[in-house]
Amino acid sequence: MELLERRRALVEARLVDVIDGLEPETLTEEVRHVALSGGKRVRPMVTILTCETVGGVAEDAVDFGVGIELVHNASLVIDDIIDRSELRRGTGSAWAEFGHGPAIITSDGLLGEAFALFSADPHATRVVSEAMVELGIGEATELSAQPDCEEEYMTLARRKTGALFRAAAELGAIAADSDPVTVEAVGEYAERVGVAFQIRDDVLDAVADADDLGKPTGHDAVLERPSVVQVTDLTPEEANDRARTEADRAIDALERVDVSDPEARGYLLDLAEFVVERER
């Protein structure tokens, strides 16, 4: 656990460095509010742990990890505007704190800083660009062409959440100069973890207490969003079983990877369990 905290500290320190160097300085307060107001840092940890698992070192993956966290935070800013959610991570969402205009500009600023971190590696830039295309299609589908069956829901979950998880892991493998087969295997692992994460997120929105979750609940039903509970006939328990299946398949994908650091791989396996069992 101490080593895991050290890796997280690398991300936090680099994140602060990037944000403190923002221009114009008038954006700094808004960006700090979004990027430094908590969060599990799951995606950057996936990047670093994947890099170490396949033979790289943590420091080589930090910039990519911070970049994917900035992309994730940028997407959350827009999500909260669309959902009219006033709370994020137990504090005010960006638009609720600063207004819609500054929030949108903040999202743009986060993306700009992220791609500055990816720009030295064309492969990394392509991976993240493709993930953002998938994310955009997912967001558009959620708003205008909602799924009406379990299969369509799973496609949406892959695009809306799985794609960015996939990019996080692939970036870690890229940082370690891995071969394409390894990049694909860790990408599948992370994509399936992301889908499991989204299913569990939908279940929590339906059944959890808002104070425990740190954000409003019941939004999917009120806004008629295509959550696993709304789109399918699955009970929350059955939906959790689907999440478990995705997590198990993620572990299977990770089994195809030649492991250089068993400890790092162990944390990736723990993550596959965590996303199914988490309570917030």
Automatic annotation (TrEMBL):
MF (Gene Ontology): metal ion binding; prenyltransferase activity
GO terms for biological process, alphabetical: isoprenoid biosynthetic process
Family recorded in the similarity comment: Belongs to the FPP/GGPP synthase family.
Keyword Nucleotide-binding listed: no
Keywords: Isoprene biosynthesis, Magnesium, Metal-binding, Transferase
Signal peptide: none
Species of origin: Natrarchaeobius halalkaliphilus
Superkingdom of source: Archaea
InterPro entries assigned to the protein according to its UniProt record, in alphabetical order: Isoprenoid_synthase_dom_sf, Polyprenyl_synt, Polyprenyl_synt_CS
Protein name: Polyprenyl synthetase family protein
Classification via SUPFAM superfamilies: Terpenoid synthases
Keyword Ligase: no
